[in-house]
Amino acid sequence: MVVPLCPHSATALIDETFPYYLGIYNGKVSEPQACEAIEASDCLLSIGYRPIEVTTGDFTASLPVNTIHARGHSVDIGDDNHQAVTLREVLTGVVDRVPQVANRPPRHDVGAAAGSQADGSASLTQAAYWRAIQGYLRPGDVLYVDNGTSFALFGLKLPPNCTFVGSVTWGSIGYSVGALLGALTAAPDRRHLLFVGDASFQVSAQELSTILRHDHKPVIFLIDNGGYTIERDYLGKTEPYNDVANWAYADLPKAFCPSATARSFVVKTTADLQKALSAPNDTLIFVESIMDPMTLRLQSPATATGEPTSTTAPAVHNTATICSFVRQPRLVYHRVKLVISRAPDRGRPWRRRALRRPKARRCARPPTRSSPGTIDSARGSNP
Fold it and tell me: Which of 2, 86, 109, 131 is disulfide-compatible with 301, CB 3.0–4.6 A?
């Protein structure tokens, strides 16, 4: 079976050199071929899809109404919800039953556009920054992304055998620095690249001390733009609650470990960035890139300049698959009744919860407050 694949905010989950890989789908910030494949699909199988603002392009994702949503232990087909159906069963059934297709032409990938050569003395921009990072990646890298403007990493095309580590769904800022320490300890022979913003880094910066103490050699790319740039776009563009203290980030390796041989760079221009990227990775490298606090970067370097990264060959059936890291828990809805009484031995109120399982195994939607059998309507009427 040959099916076009389009991960949903789960870069590196599928080898991006795979000929039927279409790119990341994330609503309005997706590449054109990913949008077309997903939104016009006549049979879309969605695997572990969790729609939140950072995985839907701020809720601009538009999936077909007949999308099949497969989760950890349930499947939605239209308005019908089927419980106790595992992902393993679903995917095994799809592979076993769908006819093999051998005549679908592969996607013609023309690669990421290089863009115009910027003046080396020009101030560093998000566009120039991520174009340079694209050329720095190599097969087998372990990539860490924290919440914020570093999400632009999703727009890059990763080489084979890369591993992606992030907390995209839950939005845990600062997660990536601790994750870097853990993975460095588990796989010290691989090259580890951390992409983090200044505000996220300040949450867990102390882990840099442990990384240096164990003589790990990651490459840390920190964007210094004065605070919570993503939050500025949502609310409070110029409000002080989106600012953070202005640290001397590139000096931290020496502050945490004076004997460290780490190489630190303060990058303000494209020439500065190229110098930092050419440094040998025989010790820890810390790259502090200073940028405009009001500049966002949510698209790939090529699509943002109007240059397509690839073209999608016609498919025999316009079918695509969305994948995600999220493992959805099995949910069973219960009717809940709270009974307040007086505990005779202690003289204070206590709460007892009574649960009732639904009579039917299938439930199209969770109960609402206006539906029969809910907490509101159960008061005084249900036993």
Answer: 131
